[in-house]
Design a protein that fits this description.
The complex is a heterodimer of chains A (147) and B (446). Chain A is an alpha+beta fold and 147 residues long. Chain A is built from two helices and six strands, in the order E-E-H-E-E-E-E-H. Classes of the chains: A alpha+beta (147), B alpha/beta (446).
């Protein structure tokens, strides 16, 4: 950003080229905290203004940290492969709002056809496994040798 | 037979091991062998319990309070630092859950208890209407014997004292412009010091406890405690279950310590509300860990005769001023700042006072410890009363402990509207009356 000095013009950014990705927190966060992955160049003030001006979300506090991407994996040429670094922002919402990351893969209701087909498939698999097993009196010992 | 048996015990274990033996299990007179107890050095839960038991006994048997404090705060591990003056959002809710405190809005109804010693405020000619319980209690109270006689206070004199201090600091005295972020130290700080010292000196005649009190300027108050459990995340101690350690290091602006304790406000086992339960880790507040000296301190060392607390005065720093919060769209956090400051500071002070008397989380308090605090930013005053009913906040001791600590608090009210042209406009007598009542609070015997 251009350096600001007293009396200079206010920096205004229209149509910023930043993107924010809301992610599910790995560890449980308080109810008013939303976790984002943001561009490395964004600052806390940027994030606050971005959410307030573009999405009308009241923001009370922002905390950021940079997650270092590991450099341990090796490719077929034994060169180190770096996972990219990214910045994580924890945004606390204002005015008592709360946010819970939604469940993106809910259990779907199965209709009768699929359920009966699944049952039939399970029963068939069980019968096949039973047939593969040898004599139970041999106690799990294979029957390709012996009498 | 007795001699070789004793030698066998001493030779087998280390010296403290044998001392633990005699402390933990009483030896039956007719048994030939020492009692069978869990090992003290094995890597097992029974051994850990035995070591903990041994530590508790060591602290119980400590000869002096200094030794008890030294043993209690001996082991240094990373702990969460609680700052009473914090910018964290909804910090007062988190602090209440860490200290098992119930917050009751409004001050405790002390009219009945203090009716005999209640100050009857004599209004000067230009003053506003007197407080509600005043006139009703005045007539019968005036006829009481001197021990419980109503005390007549000159409201005009008190108001003039307050206005003098305010004008001296903000109008008459020529000061340089305050440096950046030093506005609070420029005017409100000296005004508060001046106000409190003059009011205390004036009210010494009415309250003999104040005559024997000590006024500390910028004292230090520290307290260290355990609450809850967590699993160590990384390090050489990874995977072990540890208590969550907290430390408060507070620097109130002023503090009044007295030799006699303030009377209890409600009985020890009262239940006035619910303690918030927060299942998240304290680091989400945000709260940070650091390892340094575990200190328990009230403002003076143990041998000081003024070992009980009376009132603390806190000054809100520049970072948490009203207009800054308003500019950042955080109006609802203004009261949170005052409440968090009151709860945390008073908990640390009362708990440290209790530790100075020999109580700790295994030896819970037998009488409630009461202290008061005034949190201000120079213009707005908020009053807090705290009663410490329990110190037992660790995982084992909190399970069967129904007692809760209680904090009463008001919202912040302005003392005056504006100071201009050598006069104070819009002076609020109610706030001054609250302050005076706080300073006049004393045990019933006096």
């Amino acid at each position: 950003y251009p350096l600001f000095q007293l009396g200079g013009p206010q920096l205004r950014i229209f149509r910023p080229n930043f993107f924010m990705l809301a992610v599910r927190p790995g560890v449980p966060q308080p109810e008013d905290t939303v976790q984002f992955r943001v561009s490395m160049e964004m600052t806390k003030v940027d994030i606050k203004n971005y959410l307030e001006k573009i999405y009308n979300v009241p923001v009370a506090a922002v905390r950021t940290r940079i997650q270092y991407g590991a450099n341990n994996k090796r490719n077929h040429k034994n060169q180190r492969v770096k996972k990219p670094d990214y910045k994580v922002a924890y945004v606390q919402l204002g005015q008592g709002q709360t946010f819970q990351f939604p469940n993106l893969f809910p259990e779907k209701e199965q209709d009768t056809e699929t359920r009966s087909f699944d049952d039939f498939k399970n029963k068939y698999m069980e019968r096949e496994q039973q047939r593969q097993k040898g004599d139970p009196r041999r106690g799990g010992v294979p029957d390709w040798f012996g009498l | 037979m007795a001699v070789p048996r004793g030698w066998w015990v001493l030779w087998h274990g280390r010296r403290w091991f044998s001392q633990a033996e005699s402390g933990v299990a009483p030896r039956l007179p007719d048994s030939l062998y020492p009692p069978i107890v869990a090992s003290a050095t094995a890597k097992s839960k029974a051994a850990k319990r035995r070591r903990l038991e041994y530590f508790h006994q060591k602290v119980h048997a400590a000869p002096s309070v200094e030794e008890k404090l030294r043993l209690y705060a001996q082991l240094q591990r990373p702990k969460y630092r609680l700052h009473p003056q914090t910018f964290a959002l909804n910090a007062d809710r988190w602090y209440r859950s860490f200290t098992k405190t119930v917050f009751v809005p409004g001050l405790p109804p002390r009219a009945a208890a203090a009716a005999g010693a209640a100050p009857e405020v004599q209004q000067s000619a230009t003053a506003a209407a007197p407080g509600a319980p005043g006139p009703g209690a005045a007539a019968p109270a005036a006829a009481k014997p001197p021990a419980g006689a109503a005390v007549f206070l000159d409201m005009g004199k008190l108001r003039s004292l307050a206005c003098d201090a305010l004008l001296q600091e903000s109008f008459y005295q020529k000061k340089e412009r305050p440096f950046l972020y030093r506005h609070q130290d420029h005017t409100p700080g000296p005004f508060l010091t001046q106000l409190v010292s003059t009011l205390t000196a004036f009210l010494c005649g009415h309250n003999p406890l104040l005559a024997a009190s000590t006024l500390d300027l910028k004292p230090e108050v520290n307290y260290y405690w355990h609450h809850g459990e967590e699993v160590v995340v990384h390090g050489h101690r990874k995977g072990r279950v540890d208590p969550v350690r907290f430390q408060i290091d507070d620097k109130p602006h002023l503090q009044i310590r007295v030799p006699k304790q303030l009377p209890e406000i409600v009985p020890l086992e009262s239940d006035l509300g619910e303690v918030p339960v927060i299942n998240h880790k304290p680091s989400k507040l945000p709260l940070f860990k650091k390892q340094y000296e575990n200190k328990v301190f009230i403002g003076s060392k143990v041998a000081d005769p003024c070992c009980y607390g009376h009132t603390q005065f806190h000054l809100i720093p520049d970072k948490l001023k009203r207009q800054r919060l308003v500019k950042a769209n955080l109006e609802d956090q203004i009261e949170v700042v005052y409440r968090a400051n009151g709860i945390a500071s008073l908990f640390a002070w009362t708990a440290a006072q209790a530790m100075y008397q020999g109580f700790w989380n295994e030896a819970d308090v037998t009488r409630p410890f009461v202290s008061q605090a005034v949190v201000t930013d120079g213009k707005y005053f908020a009053f807090f009363c705290y009663q410490l009913n329990t110190l037992a906040l660790t995982v084992e001791t909190i399970q069967n402990n129904p007692r809760k600590n209680i904090c009463w608090g008001t919202e912040s009210k302005p003392l005056y509207d504006i100071v201009e042209d050598g006069s104070v406009k819009g002076f609020n007598d109610e706030v001054l009356l609250h302050l005076v009542r706080f300073l006049l609070n004393r045990p019933k015997e006096l």
